[in-house]
């Protein structure tokens, strides 16, 4: 029997995590985030797909690929403010989706940064916990997967 697969998907500019505005996003890199997520996934017997893109079409393709898997944790980054195509791809997903933001988007300097259009299709949101929000998202997906399996049996 194969392990349940979860996807951790990262949007634009997160490839520069650790050097991009460290006062807001911290100094840990995306590789550090991936390690944290893999540790959480391994603890729960999950297969993990971890990706980052600056291209909207690529994020859409990844969401299509993940839509029937066990769960998705997504940091849509700047896509969350305007990308209706990414939102539409998320609507097609049949699994839980946890939206993750490193900074607290509700406390950011610009009011437009406090509104994510993705929230309407997300199962839940983790915001403002730094990169520690990512493994928490994986942990919550593991909880939802376990609960789903126990409800079937």
Describe the structure.
With 153 residues, the chain is an alpha/beta fold. The protein has a single domain, classed as Rossmann fold, CATH 3.40.50.9100. The chain is 40% helix and 17% strand. The chain contains six helices and five strands; from the N terminus they run βααβαβααββα. A five-stranded parallel beta sheet has the order 2-1-3-4-5, sandwiched between helices. The longest helix is centred in the C-terminal third of the chain and has 20 residues. It is globular. The relative contact order is 0.20. The model has no long low-confidence stretch (mean pLDDT 93).
Across the major sheet, the strand order is 2-1-3-4-5
Q: Kindly state the percentage of residues in helix.
A: 25-40%
Please write the CATH class name: Alpha Beta
User: Which class best fits the helix and strand makeup?
Assistant: alpha/beta
**In the CATH classification, which architecture applies?**
3-Layer(aba) Sandwich
- Average pLDDT, rounded to a whole number, is 93
Overall geometry comes to globular
Number of domains: 1
How do the SSEs run, as a string of H and E?
EHHEHEHHEEH
What distance lies between the first and last C-alpha atoms, to the nearest angstrom? 16 Å
CATH superfamily descriptor: Dehydroquinase, class II
Largest beta-sheet characterization: 5 strands, parallel
Annotated CATH topology: Rossmann fold
Strand tally is 5
Please state the CA-atom Rg, rounded to the nearest Å. 15 Å
Low confidence ranges: none
